[in-house]
């Protein structure tokens, strides 16, 4: 039995993107859905647009991942920017992330 047995390692990221050249919310939503699908497909993570919903050329994405090891979470968080930036129509302005874990002890709370 390893020391990580039963721990839930998790990570969250906030990604701000600039989408130059878009002239409608419809075009923005199409591009955001493509970014979300790529992240979900390649990283098996959850993604939601959490900010800038009414702006044509800006979006804020929230990304969440859970894994059985801290290394697994770190790998996912490290790849987010690269996957988004593969699309030349997208410019990543900022990425902030947080990783932590929950022990199997029900009394343990995340240290945020």
How is this structure best described in words?
There is one protein chain. This protein has 112 residues and is α+β, with helices and mostly antiparallel strands. The chain has a single domain, classed as 2-Layer Sandwich (Alpha-Beta Plaits). It has two helices and four strands; from the N terminus they run βαββαβ. The longest helix has 19 residues. The radius of gyration is 16 Å and the shape is elongated. The protein starts with 7 loop residues before the first strand and ends in a 10-residue tail after the last strand.
Question: Key terms for this structure?
Answer:
112 residues; alpha+beta; 4-stranded antiparallel sheet; Alpha-Beta Plaits
Question: Briefly, what is this?
Answer:
The protein is α+β, with helices and mostly antiparallel strands and 112 residues long.
Tally of domains: 1
Structure class? alpha+beta
The number of helical elements comes to: 2
Briefly, what CATH class? Alpha Beta
Helix/strand order, N-terminal first: EHEEHE
Note the overall shape.
Answer: elongated
CATH superfamily: TT1725-like
| Low-pLDDT regions | none
**CATH architectural designation:** 2-Layer Sandwich
Determine the fraction of residues in helical runs and give it as a percent range. Answer: 25-40%
Range of strand content: 25-35%
Q: How would you write the strand order of the largest sheet?
A: 2-3-1-4
Q: Look up the CATH topology.
A: Alpha-Beta Plaits
Largest sheet: 4 strands, antiparallel
Number of strands: 4
**Whole-number radius of gyration?**
16 Å
Distance between the termini: 27 Å
